Structures
1.
Amino acid sequence: MIETVGFDRPQGRYAAEVDCTGMTLMPGLIDAHFHAFATEVDTAKCEKFPRTYEAQRARLNLEAALRRGFTTVRDVGGGDHGTWLAAEQGLFPSPRFFFCGRAFSQTGGHGDGRAPHEAHDLCGCAPTGVLSDLIDGVDGLRKAAREALRQGAHHLKIFMSGGISTPSDPIWYLQFSDDEIMAVVDEAARRGCYVAAHAYTADSIARAVAFGVRSIEHGNLIDAETAHKVANAGAFIVPTLVTYEAFHRYGSESGAADSTLEKLSDVRERGLEAIRLCKSAGVRLGFGTDLLGSLHYLQREEFILRSKVEAPVDVLKSATSINAAILNMDGKLGVIAPGAFADMVLIDGNPLTDISLLGVESRAILQIWSRGRQIV
Ligand SMILES: [Zn+2]
C-alpha cells in the first residue's frame, strides 16, 4: 500500500531510496482482456490436455505477463478460483488476477468450437471447453451465473456476436435471446458484479448496452450512433487490436485454424476506425490484448497499435486508471496515490513522449513492483 506521495525523504527502518533520475515511475500496467488458459493458438487443442498440465502452462502465461510490466490482468474466459487463490497466496509470480470462470456461449455461438459436421448435442451433455461453456436458456444461464459467482468470479462473460476463432458462427450473428442476456445481467447485478460481452457488430453492441452489459469486448464494427449509446450508458469498450495483428502476421505459422484466418479481415481492418469513433463519442476505452498461445509475447504491441490513433497519455490511461475503473478498483489500482496498492513500473525514459519504450522488444522497464515488493 502506498502511504504518501511527496518530496520528503522516506523515513523508517525499511525505507529504501531508488534513484529515478531521467526515468518515469508509473502505475503497473493492466490488461483487461487476457486468457491465461489460452495456451495454444488453436484453443481447441487445449481441451485435450489434462487440467493440471494446462494449469501449469497458464501459470507460465501469467508469470510472463508480470515480467512485461502487467501487474494486473482481467481474465475473460478460462481463469478460475484456484488460479486466483494461488496468485493471491504468492505461490508463483503472477499479476493480480480477476477472473470470470469459463465464458458463457449459446449452442452454435462463439464458444462452440465444433465444426458443423461434428456431433450434435441433444442429450443436454454439451461439451465444456477450456475457455467457455455451452449454456442455453434462461434457467441454464441463471444457474451457471450463480455457480460462477459462488466460485468467486469478479465478473461474468457472455458471447453476444460471432467471433473469428470459431468455425460455424458468422460475425453478424446476434447470440443469446434478450431474456437470456437480461438473466445474466440480473444475476451479476444482484451480486454487486457486472457482465462483459464479446461483441463486434454495432447491432450486438447496442443490444449489450441496452440490457445493462458494462464492458464490451473488441467492438471493432461499431458505428457512430452506437458509440454514443455506449457513452450514454456509461459502459466501457475494451479494444484488442494486437490479437488481429498477431493472427495476420503469424497466424498460419503458429497453428491458427483456417476458419479463423478466413474471418480475420472482417474485423482487423476496422479496429482503428472503431477507436476513433469511440473517442469522438466520449466512450471510455479500456486496454486489452486477447492473445492466444505462443502469441502472448506480443502483449505490449497493443501500446504501439493504439498510439496510431491516440496520444500516448490516453493509451496509458486506458491501461491503468480506466482499466482499474472497469475492475471497480478506482484509487486502488492504476494510480500512484496514497491508499493505492503499490503496483508500479519504473521506465527508463518518458513513455508520454516515446510510447515505443513499451514496445515488445523494449528493455526500458527497469523495475517492477507488485504488492509493494520489487519483483524485477
Ligand atoms: Zn477473448
Note: The longest strand covers residues 195-201.
2.
Amino acid sequence: MKLKKDGPYQICTHCVMDTSDPDIEFNKDGVCNHCLKFEELIKQHIPGSEESLKKLSKLIERIKKDGKGKEYDCIIGLSGGVDSSYVALLVNKFGLRPLAVHLDNGWNSELAVENIENIIKKLNIDLYTIVIDWEEFRDLQLAYLYASVIDIEAISDHAIIATMHKLAKKNKIKYIISGTNIATESILPESWYYKHKTDYRNIKDIYKKHGSGRKLKTYPRITWFKMLYYNYFLNLTTISILNYIDYKKENVIKLISEELGWKSYGDKHHESIITKFYQAYILPKKTGFDKRRAHLSNLICSKQISREIALNELTIPVYKSDLDLNNDINYFKKKLEISNNEFDKIINTQPKSHYEYKTNRVFRLWNQRFKQLIIILKRNFYK
Ligand SMILES: [Zn+2]
C-alpha cells in the first residue's frame, strides 16, 4: 500500500493537505485537487442560500406529512459529537419527531455519555442504544488491527447504519437524517479510510482471515441486497441536513453548549476513546496519515479558519504529555486484552488496503445499474 506520493514533499498553497496523501495532485499554482473539488461541490450546493433553505423547508414538510400518525417521523444517529448533537437540536427546532440511535461499542468516553444524556433530556427525545456484544466486537476489532487495514471505524459505522435501517423499517420511518456535511467533512483522501461503509463482504472477509474463528452472531450487519430493499422498495431516504444550512463549526459549538449543555472533547471524533487513540496515535505512527490535516483543510475551504491557524494547530501534538499517551496505550491494551508483544505487532505491521480483501464492488455496480433502471422506469411511468 502506497503511503506517500512519489517525489519531493509538497503542501497545498491554499489548504494544508500535503504529499502524505499518496493520490494528491497540484495545479500550476500549487492548489490541490481537494480544494478544487470542494469549490465544485460548493457551487452545486450553496449551503444557507435562499434556494437551499427553500428546499430544506419543503423536505421538512414532506417528512412531517409522511410521518403523520406514526410515533416518529425520522431517525437520527447520536454519537454525542458536534455534528450529531447539532442535528438533534435542529430537527427539534424544525418540529420533527426523531428516534435517536446510539451505538455503544464499549469505547464511549464518560463525557460522551454525559453529553448524550443531556441532549435526550433537554430535547425530550427517545433514544435507542445498541449495546454491541463486547466479546464479539473485541474479536472483530482485533481482526482489523491484525489485518492492519486503515479504517477500524468501518465496523462501528457499519453497525450503526445497519441498526438505523432496521429500526426505520420496524417503525415505518422513511427518513434518516444524517450529520454528514460538506462544510467540515468533505475533504478526506480515499486512501485514508474505507468509503464503502455498507460493505459487509469486506468486513466478513477480514474477520474470516484474521478473527478468532468464532461466528459473528449478534453484530448488526446490512447486506447489499438488504440495502437495495430499503432504498428502492421501502423508499428509505437519507438526508444530509447540514448541507442545506450555513454550517459554521465555531457558532454551532457555542449554540449546542448554550442550549444543550454540551461539553467539548477537545478534537473532532474524540467522543470515542478508540477513535481518538487510533487517529492520534496508531494511524499517524503506522501510515503518517494525520486526519486533522484533512479536517483543518476542510475548515479552510469553507472559510471557517485561516491557513495559518491550521498550520499552527498541526504543530501541537494531540497528546499533550507522555503520561496522557501512556495512559491511553495502557487502557487500549487492557481493554482489548493484548500483551505488549501483540501491541508492538499491531503497531509495526505494514498497513494494508481494504481492497486486498473481498469487496462488494460487483454488487455496487449492479446497484448503480438498478438505480438507472428505476429512474428510466419512473420517467416513463410519469409521462
Ligand atoms: Zn488544497
Note: Residues 47-287+319-363 form a domain with the Rossmann fold fold (CATH 3.40.50.620).
3.
Amino acid sequence: MIIEIDKIPEQGMSLEGVEPPEVLALEQSAEFHPAGPLSYDLYAQLVDGMLIVSGSVAAEMRGCCARCTQIFSTTVSDSGFLRDYSDLQGMEEVDVTEDLRETIILNLPRFPLCDETCKGLCSQCGKDLNEGPCGCSKGEEGGAWDALNSLNL
Ligand SMILES: [Zn+2]
Ligand SMILES: [Zn+2]
C-alpha cells in the first residue's frame, strides 16, 4: 500500500482497503498461507515532517493443524499497528506494504492449531478424536487423564 505524501491533508486522512494475498508472500514450507486479502484500516498523519501511520491490519490465514492435520482458517490481526517514517525529504510516496506484511507475520500463532482444545489424532488408529472417541483401549494413560479431569471438576 503506497501513501502519497502530498495527498495527506493537515488533519490527516484515513486509509482503508485491501492488498492481494500475494503481498504476504510466505514460503511454500510456511505453516500458514494467506486465505484472503490483507485488509487495513489506517490513519496517516504528517507531524513535524514525519509520516505517522497507525491503525489495524488483518488477514485471513489458512494452516494445517499440528494435532489433527485438518486444514483450518483463522483471522490474524493487529489493531495496534504504528509506524513512523522520517527522512521524507524529496520523497513523494511511502510504501508501507512491507510493514503491513511484517505485522501479520509477527502475529501468526506459534503453532498451527485448529482449536486450542483440539484433541488430535489417536496415536494408535489415527482417527480424528474431535469427531468422537475411537475404539482403541484407553490403557494407563487414559486412566490418568480421567483422574485429572475429575480433579479439575
Ligand atoms: Zn486440530
Ligand atoms: Zn484409536
Note: The two ends are 51 Å apart (CA to CA).
4.
Amino acid sequence: MSVLEVSDLEVYYETESAPAQAVDGVSFSIEEGENLGIVGESGCGKTTLAKAIIGILPDEGYVNRGSIEFDGRDLTEMSEAERRRYKWEEISMIAQSAMNALDPVYTIHEQIVEAIETHRPGTGRTESNEIVAEMFDLVGLDPERADDYPHQFSGGMRQRAMIAMALALEPSLVLADEPTTALDVIMQDQILKRIGEIQSDINSSMMVITHDVSVVAETCDRVIVMYAGKIAEEGPVEEIFGNPYHPYTIGLKRAFPNIRQSDQDLLSIAGYPPELTDPPSGCRFAERCPIATDECRTVEPEAQQQGDLRTYCHYADEIDDGFRSRADDPETWEETEAARSTRSAAEVNN
Ligand SMILES: Nc1ncnc2c1ncn2[C@@H]1O[C@H](COP(=O)(O)OP(=O)(O)OP(=O)(O)O)[C@@H](O)[C@H]1O
Ligand SMILES: [Mg+2]
C-alpha cells in the first residue's frame, strides 16, 4: 500500500521576476517499508519537494497545484494545526542543513524531549529521557553530550543528532535530505546501517535525497532522477544505474564516481540546468542533450514505460547500446548546444 502519493505537484517560489518553478508536475508514490532515492544536480528541486511534503516551505514558497496524499489524506488541504500533528510524529525530516534545523537556544536533549512530549502527551520525563539516551546511542553519540547546545557539536555530530530526532517518534515516513554528507565514510556506513535497522523495526518508509550514488545503491529500492524541477526517469535502483534510458541519467551516471570502475575518467555534462523562472517549453534537458531534436525543444515529453522504468524522453524507445557506448565518449557531450554556448562565452571572455 502507498504511504505517500504525490500527484502532479507544482511548488513555486515568489521571486522579483516570475515565480521559480522549483517542482513542476511531479507524480510518484512511496510504498510501505520502501526506500525511494531522489538524485539530480544541485538546484533541481529535491529539497523543495521534501519541504513541501513535510510542510515547511518558507513564506515565499507555495504549492501551486497538485496533491500530496499521506495515509489517504491530502496534506495540501489541511489546516496548519492539523498538519502540525503529522510533523515529526508521522513524517519527519533529516534536514540538509542540520544547523538551521536545530534550535540554537535549546539543548539537543530539550529539543528531542519536547518533540516526544508534544506528540505523545502521556509520556513521562523518565521515559522521554530513556528514548533520548537510546537514540543517541543508536546514532553513535555519547548520551552524556545530550545536554549540549547545537553550536557545541561538530557538523557531523549535529547531523547525527538530527537523525536521532527524526527517528525518535518512529514516524511512518522519513525524509532524509543528504543525511550523511557531513560524516566520514566509516561513520556514514554505520549510520546508514543503523537507520536501516531502526526502519525495518518500525516498518517506516524513507525518501533519501543525495548526490552520493553509493548511498542510493546501498539504501534504496527505487530511484527518481530529477532534472530542473521535473522527473526525468524513475525505476528500480539496479535498472536506473544499470540500464537507464534517459540521456540525462546516462550522462549523470558517467559524471558520478563508479564504485566498480574507479579508474574511469569522470565526465561532466556541459552547461547548466535552465533558469527555473523561465524554463524552456519543450524538454528541460534539450539544450544539454546530445540527441535533442526540434521536437525536444518544443514539445514536453510524456512518460514512456521501458520495462520497469518510467522515462520522460521522446526518444526513450530509440536509446540503444549505440548511444550508451557513445555516451562514454567525451566528444558526445562536447557537441551539445550547451557545450557550444559555453565555448563561445569563453571566447568572448578571452
Ligand atoms: N526561498 C527560495 N526563493 C526562491 N527560489 C528558491 C528558494 N529556495 C530554493 N529556490 C530555488 O528552487 C530551486 C530548487 O532548489 P532546491 O533547494 O529544492 O534544490 P536541490 O535539488 O535541493 O539542490 P541541492 O542539491 O543544491 O540541495 C533552485 O533553483 C533554487 O534556486
Ligand atoms: Mg537540497
Note: The first helix runs from residue 46 to 54.
